[in-house]
Amino acid sequence: MKKLGLILGMIVFTFSMNAQNKTFTLPENEGEQLKGQYIVIDEKGTPQENYNKVINYINKTYNTPSEVIKSQINGEYIRIEGISDLFKNGGVMIPVRHTLEFNFKQDKIKMTISSLTGAGSSTASVTVYCTYAKTHNSSGKVKKMMMNYATKVTDGVNALAERIKLGIAEENSTDTDDDW
After folding, report:
1. pTM to 2 decimal places
2. Can you spell out the DSSP letters for the chain?
3. Domains delineated in the chain
4. Is the pLDDT assigned to residue 43 strictly greater than 60?
């Protein structure tokens, strides 16, 4: 019976990891965490075209894009490190240094969370608090305070992802403001 439960748990875990393609999710099962999760952005184009859209988005969005782009392989991969006010804690916006990776396939862009750390007075890891081990006790019961924090972080990352998706979609727009 334990083997059947273990197998079913593995199947559910596998499907939940594959179902996370549209939004980042809170850890709900043993071993799950926010770090390493990814979403897939459906964007028409070749890998090179989508790579260019992300590069253009970065160049238009960040003050110093050359400092934001930490690594790139033309048409295949981009890693960026930026700072965003992702969430409020105690009524104060919390600046978070985010490291995101982008991979490209035909009509798809994969965006992965590599790390989230404090960018203000604290440079501690934020993702360490967004793990099942931190949001649940040993019997599996939710720790309210930690889950509230993890929810704020996850919501903030999803809002950032939406801004990125919209920015990339704008790069695909054929509308130009040429009648000025």
Report:
1. 0.81
2. -HHHHHHHHHHHHHHHHHTTTSS-----STT-BSTT-EEEEE--S-HHHHHHHHHHHHHHH-S-HHHHEEEEETTTEEEEEEEEEEEEETTEEEEEEEEEEEEEETTEEEEEEEEEEE-SS---BSGGGSBHHHHB-TTS-B-HHHHHHHHHHHHHHHHHHHHHHHHHHHHH--------
3. 30-170 (3.30.530.80)
4. yes
